[in-house]
């Protein structure tokens, strides 16, 4: 079984509760014995895949399979071509150098409002980037955009392989076909296009 969840902002990417009493995946996924295939930090939103199949979980998460992950990042400022070129070439983050990413400016996506909203600064514009990576180190996209001088204010994972958010609202869960992950791009129904 493979599930797609639109993980809301502030939700911890685990099923067990801790002393913070923040919401967890257990608040949205009621099926037993499913586990996240990858993670999103609490401050990030969007597509999270969960499965009860250990080998599928490994295929989704292991970098050797080079499964692409597409992120929409709302960043502070207006990235120039030099910043985009750095993202496309790979960025040294101190503990590792990222693989080259696909990075481009995009129009603001049609998405749900975030609660709480991002901080607003009247004199500093924000810009949306679409970044595609084939790895997924801890807070990688946030670290990459900060390293090139444009901190991420909001981060949404829009696609993993051939499965996308589609019309999933925050907190919605949908069963999807594993074959869409590694296929030529997936279908067009919600969560799969």
Description of the structure:
The structure is a single chain. It contains 4 helices and 9 strands. It has 193 residues and is an alpha+beta fold. The chain folds into 2 domains: 1-65 and 161-193, 2-Layer Sandwich (Alpha-Beta Plaits), CATH 3.30.70; 68-160, Alpha-L RNA-binding motif (Alpha-Beta Plaits, 2-Layer Sandwich). The longest helix has 9 residues, at 81-89. The radius of gyration is 16 Å and the shape is globular. The model is unreliable at 185-193 (pLDDT under 50).
Per-chain topology:
Elements: E1 2-7, E2 35-36, E3 45-51, H1 54-61, E4 69-76, H2 81-89, E5 102-106, E6 126-133, H3 140-147, E7 152-160, E8 163-164, E9 173-175, H4 179-182
Percent range for β-strand residues = 25-35%
Form type: globular
Biggest beta-sheet profile: 9 strands, mixed
CATH class of the largest domain: Alpha Beta
- Number of spatially distinct domains: 2
Instruction: Give the count of helical stretches.
Output: 4
By CATH, the topology of the largest domain is Alpha-Beta Plaits
Q: Report the end-to-end length measured between terminal Cα atoms.
A: 19 Å
Tell me the name of the CATH homologous superfamily of the largest domain. Pseudouridine synthase I, catalytic domain, N-terminal subdomain
Class from secondary-structure proportions: alpha+beta
> Helix coverage percent of residues?
10-25%
């Amino acid at each position: 079984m493979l599930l797609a969840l639109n993980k809301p902002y502030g939700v911890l990417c685990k099923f067990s509760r801790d002393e913070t009493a923040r919401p967890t995946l257990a608040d949205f996924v009621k099926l037993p014995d499913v586990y996240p295939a990858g993670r999103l930090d609490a401050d990030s939103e969007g597509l999270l895949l969960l499965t009860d199949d250990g080998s599928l979980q490994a295929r989704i998460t292991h970098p050797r399979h080079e499964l692409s992950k597409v992120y929409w990042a709302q960043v502070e400022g207006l990235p120039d071509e030099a910043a985009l070129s750095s993202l496309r070439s790979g960025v040294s983050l101190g503990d590792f150098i990222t693989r080259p990413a696909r990075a481009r400016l995009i129009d603001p996506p049609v998405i749900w409002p975030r609660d709480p909203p991002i901080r607003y600064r009247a004199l500093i514009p924000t810009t949306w980037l679409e970044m595609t990576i084939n790895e997924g180190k801890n807070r990688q996209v946030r670290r990459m955009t900060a390293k090139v001088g444009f901190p991420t204010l909001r981060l949404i994972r829009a696609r993993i392989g051939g499965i996308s958010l589609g019309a999933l609202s925050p907190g919605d869960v949908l069963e999807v076909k594993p074959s869409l992950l590694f296929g030529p791009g997936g279908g067009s129904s919600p969560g799969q296009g």
